[in-house]
Write a structure and sequence with these properties.
Blueprint lengths: L2 E3 L20 H15 L22 H24 L36 E2 L8 E8 L5 H10 L4 E4 L1 H4 L3 H9 L3 E4 L12 H19 L12 E3 H9 L5 E2 L3 E3 L4 E3 L11 E5 L3 H4 L3 H14 L3 E3 L6
Parallel strand pairs: 2-7, 3-4, 3-10, 3-11, 4-5, 8-10
Antiparallel strand pairs: 1-6, 8-9
Helix pairs in contact: 1-2, 6-7
Length: about 325
């Protein structure tokens, strides 16, 4: 058995896309509104006028509809600006582009494979994309800061949680509230052991047991699993597959309350990088979860990156 040990560190209508969080001119807003309203008409059939023999062309939407839509956009942007100020960010976070209609092919990172990898969940550290996006993932469940939930919800920042039962069980309700906000709860084992030190049966108990807990408590059986410390071997991935796991993402960078660590030699973030952090508080790293979120968002925003939802790319 070979242990692999990682460091703990038909385009029917036009589709509008942007990674910019705001549009400040009335003309730009009206154009957006017109595009959105016009695209809604694409679903109408010929009997409603478009292209039908002898039919009348569709009428342009009334100005008040454009104004209403523009007002919604302005209100949404104003709320985002206010949230960024309230949570003391340096800039308003960028909005991620829509996820691709065709999901990227996910393979094990080179050098991270195990024997028989083609039939096992891949271990990877980034998503193949040219978009300037990164993915925030949070491990274990020790710190349960309600203000962090409010902060991420108000800023509309997606993230993915990998929880361990020995910590989550202190307050299952906290993670239920997180799930209610659209966060996916994924598998990080029952007790956070060094998995390559266990037998296949022991690893399967840790992974399948956590699958059972998440399904019982939160109604869904995860398809994502992160091995504790990023340590795994072939038995880990065999057990994960037997428990219903499809992917085993780890990370390419790690963020703390006051600094970053990197896997790559250039010590930079890159398009598609998966970023790790932990549910930790001031007793563990000299800052709060909110401090960590500010450290993360200030850097990625300054470098022109938006935060996307990992599950949308899998």
């Amino acid at each position: 058995m070979r242990a692999v040990v990682q460091t703990d560190k038909s385009r029917a209508c036009g589709v509008f896309r942007t990674s910019s969080p705001g549009f400040r001119t009335r003309g730009g807003l009206a154009a957006l509104a017109l595009a959105a309203l016009a695209s809604s008409g694409c679903a109408q059939d010929a009997s409603q006028g478009r292209g039908a023999a002898g039919g009348q062309p569709l009428q342009a939407p009334p100005a008040r509809a454009l104004d209403a839509y523009a007002s919604e956009l302005r209100a949404a942007q104003a709320a985002r600006v206010a949230a960024a100020e309230r949570w003391k960010l340096k800039k308003v976070p960028l909005t991620a582009p829509p996820p691709p209609e065709k999901k990227p092919e996910i393979k094990a990172r080179e050098g991270f494979e195990v024997d028989g990898q083609e039939n096992l969940p891949p271990v990877f550290t980034s998503i193949p994309t040219k978009e300037k996006i990164v993915f925030l993932t949070i491990d274990d469940g020790a710190e349960k800061d309600p203000a962090f939930l409010r902060m991420m919800s108000e800023l509309k920042i997606p993230y993915t949680a990998f929880i361990s039962d020995y910590l989550a069980k202190e307050d299952y309700g906290y993670f239920g509230r997180m799930q209610d906000r659209g966060v996916t709860l994924n598998n990080h084992t029952l007790h956070h052991p060094y998995l390559p030190g266990l037998s296949y049966a022991g690893q399967k108990r840790e992974i399948c047991g956590m699958q059972d807990v998440i399904e019982e408590r939160y109604g869904e059986r995860p398809t994502l699993f992160r091995p504790p410390y990023g340590n795994y071997n072939r038995d880990t991935l065999r057990a994960a597959k037997a428990c219903g796991i499809e992917y085993a993402p780890i990370w390419n960078a790690e963020v703390f309350a006051d600094h970053w660590d990197y896997r790559e030699w250039d010590r930079e973030i890159h398009p598609g990088d998966i970023v790790l952090t932990h549910f930790r508080g001031e007793d563990d790293w000299g800052g709060t979860m909110r401090d960590m979120a500010r450290e993360f968002l200030d850097k990625v925003t300054a470098e022109g990156y938006a935060v996307a939802r990992l599950e949308d790319y899998l």
